[in-house]
Amino acid sequence: MAKSKREFWQLKLYVAGQTPKSVAALTNIKKYCEENLDGQYTIEVVDLVKNPQLAAGDQILAIPTLVRKVPEPIRKIIGDLSNEEKVLVGLDIKPLVK
Amino acid sequence: MASKQNKNKSLKDLAIPKSPTGIDGLDEITDGGLPQGRPTLVCGSAGCGKTLLAMQFLIKGITEYNEPGVFLTFEEPTEDLQKNVASLGFDLKKLSASNMLHIDHVEVERQEIEETGEYDLEGLFIRLGYAIDKIKAKRVVLDTIETLFGGLKNEGILRSEIRRLFHWLKEKGVTAVITGERGEASLTRQGLEEYVSDCVILLDFRVTDQISTRRLRIVKYRGSSHGTNEYPFLIDENGVSVLPITSLRLEHKVSAEIVPTGIEGLNHMFEKGGYYKGSSVLISGTAGTAKTTLASYFANETCKNKGRVLYFAFEESPSQLVRNMQSVGIDLESHVKKGLLQIHSSRPSLHGLEMHLLSLHKLVKDFKPDAVVIDPISNLISVGSISEVRAMLVRLIDLLKLNNITALFTSLTQQNISGTNELTEESVSSLVDTWITVRDVEGVGERNRGLYILKSRGMGHSNQVREFIISRNGIELLELEIGPEGMLTGSARKKHRQNVSAQKDKNIKDIQRRDREIARKKKILESNIETMRIQFESAAEELNKLEMEEQELSEKLTPPIKKHIKKLK
């Protein structure tokens, strides 16, 4: 697991206001990251209601959308991220063995 | 008509407002444009011009109606779109720079996106809303929103979100055009027509007999009257144009103005010295009877009188026509250079009849001619049946009459045994106002050309069949020559003329001979008179002499006699 320790995860969560789905998504991703990435990550929350011009940059259609900026390639997961397995597979995160 | 409109005006104000599309013809079919502030669905199969129609709606909105627009493309990247429409003369970059146009490419890649749990398309709404607010857009195009179904798996969410999107667009008050791919059983693949209930336009691209025609139909338009037919449309260097052909009625105004035919002799065959302006003229005849020459004469004459002429040649190229007409003394080139004459040549099979009609329509609209020549109409039959050609000609003639444009058609007729001409007689005769027939007059080993007027509405005309000759100086109608066996042409005419002049010579000689005879008789008589006079003179002289002698004798005798008489007393 030496490799994964050096890896850094830069995530962006696009939301539109404080909708239940957005809140749920944020709670979920925070939880997964804490459990599996051992602090090697940042989560940036972009509220498109406040910054609508940012939607085009990452080709955001659906809300909420989680974008993995780093490591490349860019991956997107849409929805409230309620399915942990899918999210981890989607982000290509290998769960830490506890 | 006008008073009706006024009455309906208050009602019309209540009717749904419309956004003019700026697309030739489409506004006429839709009675003013697309429903303002509502979404319109444009659907059709691949390559039928949906994107172009939508783009033109947007660009015309900017350039002609000062309504900014947002183009949300799901299919092509912005650069591709710019290049594609640049060929049609639309400069998207410039419009974007002036903040009148916003193009946003929405990329939907399935393999990039993982779905988990509930979501909505608020991101799309925000992007669109942001773009609309940024440039204060009045018009929006979504091209093609169905691509979303390829990128996102949850159809239930998509459908409800699309429904919400259309409601949202209505609330925003933007006039939206949504394009959709044609489905097999439904108008669009994903049944988008369920959501868009106000106006649905169907585009179609059909190939019949290897000739393609684009057609447009308004499937529905809630709260508005609209043309219900399939209208052919054209995509050319100016974009889309639609021709609402059957909306025309027989209401055109007529003119009493006369336009000369270009041929002196032919003018005289008409009571008023030419065709009526705005009437339709047909010159029919078999091959090689100088139909084109007659048509060119008319074009030439109109140009000489500063009129504008549009010449459609379906058989010859412009340069060939110019050269050929030079040989009969017509200089078409100078008219072309002055911009009075436009010659358009194309093969009839270039595209379908409707397309021909549409391109004619466009050219007439652009060039605003005083006269249009179509040479020949019979050629069009190669791209359609007789009834189709007839239908097209009806619309064409109506169009030209409406604009008070004199139309001259030539038509090739097959001379069959019964002598009837299929196309002309069946299909066109009732449409044209003046019909001139040129035909071969065969006989004594040669072929001559004869011309007569079959009909001329509203004008008296000659009933004669006139022979005409074409020389370097042009067409000349010859005076009628009637021999003992009817009309004479060609060498028979010459022979007849010779006969006539020989007869004349003979007569003159006869008279002269008789004159001389009389003179001679006179001389004889005169000499007779002289002889008699001389005889008379000599007789008189003799008589005189006798008298003299008698006198002398009596004088000699007198005295003795007197003496004798005195003696007797």
Task: Report what the structure shows.
The complex is a heterodimer of chains A (98) and B (569). Chain A has 98 residues and is α+β, with helices and mostly antiparallel strands. Chain A contains 3 helices and 4 strands; from the N terminus they run αβαβββα. Chain A has helices at residues 2-6, 20-36, 84-91, and strands at residues 9-15, 41-47, 65-70, 75-78. The longest helix of chain A has 17 residues, at 20-36. The model of chain A has no long low-confidence stretch (mean pLDDT 80). Chain B has a 9-stranded mixed β-sheet with strand order 5-4-7-8-3-9-10-11-12, with helices on both faces. A 9-stranded mixed β-sheet of chain B has the order 17-16-18-19-15-20-21-22-23, sandwiched between helices. In chain B, β18, α15 and β19 form a beta-alpha-beta unit. Classes of the chains: A alpha+beta (98), B alpha/beta (569). The interface between A and B is medium-sized, with 33 and 24 residues. β4 (75-78) of chain A pairs parallel with β6 (113-115) of chain B.
CATH class of the largest domain in chain B: Alpha Beta
Helix content of chain B: 40-55%
State the low-pLDDT regions of chain B, or none.
1-7, 417-421
The CA-CA distance between the termini of chain A, in Å, is 13 Å
What number is the mean pLDDT of chain B? 82
What separation lies between the terminal Cα atoms of chain B?
143 Å
Would you identify the CATH H-level superfamily of chain A? Glutaredoxin
Mean pLDDT of chain A: 80
Oligomerization status of the protein chains? heterodimer
Largest beta-sheet details of chain B: 9 strands, mixed
Share of β-strand residues of chain A: 15-25%
How many extended strands of chain A? 4
Radius of gyration of chain A: 13 Å
* Total strands of chain B: 25
Structural class of chain A comes to alpha+beta
Spatial shape of chain B? rod-shaped
How many strands, what sense, and barrel or not for the largest sheet of chain A? 4 strands, mixed
CATH superfamily of the largest domain in chain B: P-loop containing nucleotide triphosphate hydrolases
- Number of continuous helical runs of chain A: 3
